[in-house]
Amino acid sequence: MKRWIGVGLALLLGVAVVAAVVLGNRGSGGGGGPAALVTVRGVIGSEKKPFFDDPGVRAAFARHGLRVEVDTAGSREIATSVDLRKYDFAFPSSVPAAEKIKQERGATRVYSPFYSPMAIATFQPIVDVLAKAGVVRDSGGGYQVLDLGKFLGLVAKGTRWDALPGNTAYPARKRVLLTTTDIRTSNSAAMYLAATSYVANDDDVVSSSSQVATVAPIVAPLFLDQGYSESSSEAPFEDYLAIGAGKTPMVVIYEAQYASRLFAADGAIRPDMRLIYPSPTVLSKHTLVPFTDKAAEVGRLLQEDPAFARLEAKYGFRTSDPRVFAGLVASSKAPIPAGLVDVVEPPTYEHLERLISTIQQRYLAGARPSS
Amino acid sequence: MRPGTRLTRHVPRRVTAAAAAALLLLPLAACGGSGGEPEGNAPDVLRVLAGSEVKDLEPLLAKAADAVGVKVRLSYAGTLDGAEEVANGGADGRYDATWFSSNRYLSLIDGASAKLSTQTKVMVSPVVLGLRRAKAHELGWDTRRVTWADIATAAGQHRFTFGMTNPASSNSGFSALVGVTAALSDAGEALDKSQIESVTPQLTRFFSAQTLTAGSSGWLADAYARQGGSGGSVDGLINYESVLLGLAGRLKEPLTLVYPSDGVVTADYPLTLLASSPKKELYGKLAAWLRTPAVQREIMTTTNRRPIVPEVRPDQRFGGAQLLELPFPNRRSAADELISAYLNQVRRPSRTLFVLDTSGSMEGDRIDALKQALAALTGADTSVSGQFSRFRNRETVTLLPFSSAPATPQTFTVPDRDATAVLGRIRAYGDALHAFGGTAIYDSLRSAYETLAGERSNDDFTSVVLMTDGENTDGSSYDDFAAYYRTARRKVPTFVVLFGDSDVGEMRQVAQLTGGAAFDARTGSLASAFKEIRGYQ
């Protein structure tokens, strides 16, 4: 970790001039689009890729003389190991990662045009099994929640699906765990860590090193015992949609991933699929860090232009004006709540990072983390 | 075997702009280039380092040129070799993307994920057991739910036999090994070292039924199809569902697919952009095209793989059973431990004979290359893939050098632990070889088969390697050997290595006659050809 930052800084200092020249040249067209457009390149969390690929979004940028090209990477990778010299902006999925990039790159401001609560995509038979076990319940707000406190209890005991009482629907010998992305690279897993660490810390945001030390052994099995996990949040959701409960009975996602499929009515969400929320949950605030003036213009448009707000909502993101998202929910009759009640703040970048590093050390050590 | 999908010519519409840009960039590229650039790196060519598993997509990929203006050039590498090449930077600048059946092993290597950019899953295929119909029926596996533990029990009782690829060379073998181990360990979470150790006895029982091995899924399927299923010695295969379904028209007795109810490991074929490649846009076009519903349907119908986009649902060929996915290790040490245990403790031992040309024409670089290639197999190659291709614990190795006549065969048996001393003796023997005299290829090859005929035949994986750098000059001819082989008591495959001025036609005949394969070391190194062959032994 420390080493990566060191290398990153050295590279940044060493080739800043070259980068400026290259980026300058790139901006002048030749990449193939109409010559009038200025190309702006960004590295983003993979969950925003469909949004940037949308012809409507590209047209909206074109109307402002911009052509936005993106690569995808995990948010923590964006904040640590990705070579940012190749880009005009970074667009990770959380405020903490954005703050880190902002500091390192000396950016003057950031834009948070939209957010999405962390959610769990699952299936009705799984919900039924977990409801019977007392882990899933009604929130009282028209949606169901996974009680993280009770869930951590199951995990601490190493419970397997086939050991849950009365479970004939999903008698797998696998451990009861939520599928996440790789905690070492990806933001959605980090947001899940934020929520579970809050519960493991007696319902309080982790805010000291001693709390990190106490909480880490409790939450580490949530990630380590899954085995291999993917580095970006599109991949496990794709498995959920295409392969189903056999591979991914429950997957931690951004609400937007599920909502956008419902809004599109493309048939990807089949009748037995369900969206529930962890209780408590956290909000993933997608935050753009611009390195150039043109990239700042991209951030400003995404945050302030109503035409973009409509497009953002189409991709399932909640924008500052809640009516845009609510309108789509109503018109598509999507089973998505207007608001969530049990929402907590993530730890600061330093503490979240320390938690992740502690879990990362357990990967390196190869130690059995659980019970 | 060679890279290169020749694809239709397609002139990009923006050819002038692209050419102008290329001219401008030329001086920069010359300064920054690392050399060794493979030919054909035109702006519309995407150079892909791939697993041989995706070879069956070549006809489909040929259409990408017309559909989206992307010419795909595939080069093939084994699982671990390819992963190491990407992780150590060897693929940077030479390839734009990778396409293996899974990125899971690669992602376990330190620093490898920084080499990768966008990953796009293209299709899905689980690794399952295919068993000839009568055998599946006899075991009752065509009707009731079967677990890996059931399969292991039947294997231990010698009630069926199967073939599987080498986990160090091929992803299907690796996935199968992980799946079987995870299921037998009964742990419910990702494997670690202690679980692997405790499950080793059960694994040994399971793999006692493995009577066919191979370095690639394609060769394994061919070898199985060749034996025809009629009284053949192998009852089935553990492989990708797609490979097993694809065998349908080629077998006298069709396979019944057994989907173990306790889980499988599934390949998801991520087309992955290398971070070092500037051809992001080209990659994006190909990836998006591959996921269009029409192409997904074509992949399903022509290659028997399941679609990855939810808009296209798998059809009835895949059956309706829900497939549980078993956890995959998340540490490289666990993965490597597992492969090592499989090779050195679990599977049947290898019995290998190396018939090695030491004629006068080998003098100089060639004999040195041979010594190096042999030394690599005794542990001198310290890369992970090198360690997995060394002479294994419990393996019996015969070196049979020849010139005008075969020399006396030298046989070494590597013990089941502390292999170092014997490996050192094999290496010393190889180092002492020197080149002189003529080339009695067929007398020497026959001597290898006679050596085997004098041994009690057992269940070891037995094979011959024939390496020669020239034409036969002394003793019997190919026809003499072919006549002998037809009457030989032990029929085992000979893997031939084309080297120097080999008689390519005759060498291929030897491979075909014996059910082996030919490996080309005329352009690559002798050591890498030997390493590739180890996947088949």
TrEMBL record, chain A:
Organism of this sequence: Microbispora corallina
Protein's UniProt name: Extracellular solute-binding protein
TrEMBL record, chain B:
InterPro entries reported for this sequence: VWF_A, vWFA_dom_sf
Residue ranges annotated for the VWFA domain, each copy included: 351-537
Keyword annotations of the record: Signal
A Pfam family that the UniProt record links to this protein: SBP_bac_11
Signal peptide: 1-32
Highest taxon, organism lineage: Bacteria
SUPFAM superfamilies named among the record's database cross-references: Periplasmic binding protein-like II (SSF53850), vWA-like (SSF53300)
Name of the protein this chain belongs to: VWA domain-containing protein
